[in-house]
Amino acid sequence: MKNRIATSLVSTSKRCAPRQHGTPAILAHTCRSTYQSCYSSTVAPPSVSQPPNADYLAFPGAAKSAFSHSLKFEQPSTHPALSTYRVVDQNGVVVDPNFKPDLSDEEVVKLYRDMLTTSIMDIIMFDAHRQGRISFYMVAAGEEATSVGSASALAKEDVVFLQYREQGVLVQRGFKLAEFMNQLFANKYDPGRGRNMPVHYGSRELNVHTISSPLATQLPQAAGAAYALKIQHRQNPSAPPRVAICYFGEGAASEGDFHAALNIAATRECPVIFFCRNNGYAISTSTQEQYRGDGIAARALGYGIDTIRVDGNDIWAVREATKKAREMALQDGGKPVMIEAMTYRVSHHSTSDDSFAYRKKVEVEEWKRRDNPIIRLRKWMEAKGIWDEDKEREARESIRRDVLKAFSEAEREKKPAMRSMFEDVYEDLTPDLKVQMAELRSHLERYPEEYDVDEFEGGKDSLTSQP
Amino acid sequence: MTARKQLLRRAMVPQPVARLFSPTVAIPQRRYSTHPPNAKLNLPTDYSATSLLSHTSQQTLSNPELPADVRAGTTKRMNLFQAVNDALATALAEDESVLLFGEDVAFGGVFRCSMNLKDTFGGDRVFNTPLSEQGIMGFAVGLAAENMRPVAEIQFADYVYPAFDQLVNEAAKFRYRDGACGRSVGGLTVRMPCGGVGHGALYHSQSPESLFTHIPGLRVIMPRSPVQAKGLLLAAIRSNDPCVFMEPKILYRAAVEQVPTAPYTLPLGKAEVLKEGKDVTVISYGQPLYKCMAAIQEIEKSMGVTAELIDLRTVYPWDKEEVFKSVRKTGRCVVVHESMVNAGIGAEIAAAIQEDSKTFIRLEAPVVRVAGWSIHTPLVYEQFNIPSVARIHDNLKKVLEY
């Protein structure tokens, strides 16, 4: 199993070590012996001294480039596409005879239920939007394995940055249905205090940063967060080493922040896993219109980052790759690793989107039928004899019941106190904000018929600078 | 583009004064903004004589804003970049979560603000980043989100725009977005040199503070002097709100004063009355304060009036009370800043003054703004664009004669 992963992971470390350290072999080797010395060597400028009789010139920007007398441009088409790592095929059949699950049956069932929970919650909430009960929702159908599988390989202390279609990560990490619903209904228990659109979850307890709508902004942040974890571990070696993981889509990878993030994560040697969900679509834009290279994984090589492409509908492949990536990210004092999980966005982009305007229904139906990550694990579990039709029915029913219960409880709650619209802009309310809060209150008092403040906890009375 | 940007950046590194005036080395000087021989108002600022700088230790230590122990201590002659360096060294020494990084920071920075800091505090805490402002800012936001106190440098304010998304959508909103989870990026400070230097043209002269003052969540600060720079920068770094700290680069070497050697902070969000007066209030921040002072001296002589000069210091959230108090007393107000007049700090101050009924009824004249025209920052026209002593003087006269 391990060997298989090792060969699948495209490693840049061998090529890069001499480049980064300037002087090859001896110094590079010495540098890796301790965290400290490795670290300092990286920040030193590369040596441009010329080794005797070398067939290359040590340009500072490409210290090991050999001279060639053939005028040849490298062409992407002459390089084979990166392979896709897979453990279990779409029929739930293990393709790697050496594969042994490292989870107990109960743990596997738990992951399956996490995927199922994600899927059932999505269906209910999509309908809730259609009924006008919530203002927005984003479904992750078809991508449940990418999020649940990767999250299962992380430590609780690891720091997570999400894009917005990774509710499976939250489910796997223990975000409760009530917490989902409180956020979706923006009620008084919503940690976001009624400020964010639905699906912008966050949890301090679970080390998941609150989701931000702008695409890719979380990538350089994850690099910075990972650097913080690295420095903190160095300042306090008794604390367990941690990584940051950052989820994003193949569309977000076109943003400048993606490139900035990979480059700075590579140069600062940050223990961060960049996890791309390549689901084929950025709203309506297909990958053919999004990029022309070999997906997203291949880009990592250009930045000197180890990378792997996995079958994102195979939860085992996703889990194994993330496990290995986490291990690698903590090696040599820290380094970034890229995972590109290939999947298909079965759902519309969001509740505001009708994807049949730009793709054929038959395409979606075919994907649904041919390859679904939940069915794949179910088939695997059934073959193993730990799952059957009865269990499936019971699981679906109980999850549905739990979701609806949390749904109706959250829907009943009041909106947060109105004063929270002025809070958390700064650490403390500024004099200006106090004045504005009083001004709004006074306005509401003079125009009581014009606004409905009763749905907010405490009505207009919370608008006071002395709560 | 990048190569050109790099070349320009190198060209902007201020040369040591000794080299410029060395009699044995002839260095051609090309100054596009000079003053004519018969000018009486538009004379170069004499930083060695201005009353806005503390030239003696005693003067510095008499500042009532300084804590008693600092006032009982010693001072050292420093220019503004040395004062910034001193504040950074203090922050790095007192708190191991402080990190300093940006383009070319490790060797000391193109303006020398981070000299020796990498050697003192190590390459893991003081380091170069790749050339990407959005990367620097995103990285800084991530560090701050995980309880560090990053001090990020944008090499010139003119290059901050790629980082705008991270500042506006991420840094400023982080605490608000996280809500009851309670996380913030309050540890973040971003420093950037700004303002005209006589030859910076479109991309080495900008003063984009008003773009940040439109963004709730950020504190925007601009010091006028070395003493102020040290105290305000340390306050910004220790502050639990993200701060944009803008350093008038023309003052890096020009402004020299006696700076307390002990660590100290100066209050954020508080303006300072630099000179009391009763007939007109002049409000400014950063380098134009020196020009305001020169104009005030002239007008006081010629018209027999007294003017009050206020340094905003923090341009957002700004000290309305101090400004209102002064304008209620004088009834006249002139706001002066380098950056464009449209939707600038002056617009905000003028609006706030007329909106405050207790101040509005005391107004004897319209509030006047003296600022850059609504153009970009052109090379050979800088002397006509950045408020000059003569323009400030002329507007003071207008306001006083209204």
Automatic annotation (TrEMBL), chain A:
GO terms for molecular function: branched-chain 2-oxo acid dehydrogenase activity; metal ion binding. SUPFAM superfamilies: Thiamin diphosphate-binding fold (THDP-binding). GO terms for biological process: branched-chain amino acid catabolic process. Its EC number is 1.2.4.4. Residues 113-417 form the Dehydrogenase E1 component domain. Pfam families: E1_dh (PF00676). InterPro entries: Alpha-ketoacid_DH_E1_comp, DH_E1, THDP-binding. Its cofactor is thiamine diphosphate. It comes from the Eukaryota. It is found in: Mitochondrion matrix. Its main location: mitochondrion. It catalyses: N(6)-[(R)-lipoyl]-L-lysyl-[protein] + 3-methyl-2-oxobutanoate + H(+) = N(6)-[(R)-S(8)-2-methylpropanoyldihydrolipoyl]-L-lysyl-[protein] + CO2. One of its GO terms (cellular component) is mitochondrial matrix. Keywords: Metal-binding, Mitochondrion, Oxidoreductase, Potassium, Thiamine pyrophosphate, Transit peptide. The branched-chain alpha-keto dehydrogenase complex catalyzes the overall conversion of alpha-keto acids to acyl-CoA and CO(2). It contains multiple copies of three enzymatic components: branched-chain alpha-keto acid decarboxylase (E1), lipoamide acyltransferase (E2) and lipoamide dehydrogenase (E3). PANTHER family: 2-OXOISOVALERATE DEHYDROGENASE SUBUNIT ALPHA, MITOCHONDRIAL. Belongs to the BCKDHA family. This is 2-oxoisovalerate dehydrogenase subunit alpha.
TrEMBL record, chain B:
Keywords: Oxidoreductase. The keyword Calcium does not apply. It holds the Pfam family Transketolase_C. SUPFAM superfamilies: Thiamin diphosphate-binding fold (THDP-binding) (SSF52518), TK C-terminal domain-like (SSF52922). Its EC number is 1.2.4.4. GO terms for biological process: branched-chain amino acid catabolic process; generation of precursor metabolites and energy; response to nutrient. This is 3-methyl-2-oxobutanoate dehydrogenase (2-methylpropanoyl-transferring). Residues 78-254 form the Transketolase-like pyrimidine-binding domain. GO terms for molecular function: branched-chain 2-oxo acid dehydrogenase activity. InterPro entries: THDP-binding, Transketo_C/PFOR_II, Transketolase-like_Pyr-bd, Transketolase_C. Its cofactor is thiamine diphosphate. It catalyses: N(6)-[(R)-lipoyl]-L-lysyl-[protein] + 3-methyl-2-oxobutanoate + H(+) = N(6)-[(R)-S(8)-2-methylpropanoyldihydrolipoyl]-L-lysyl-[protein] + CO2. It comes from Coniochaeta pulveracea.
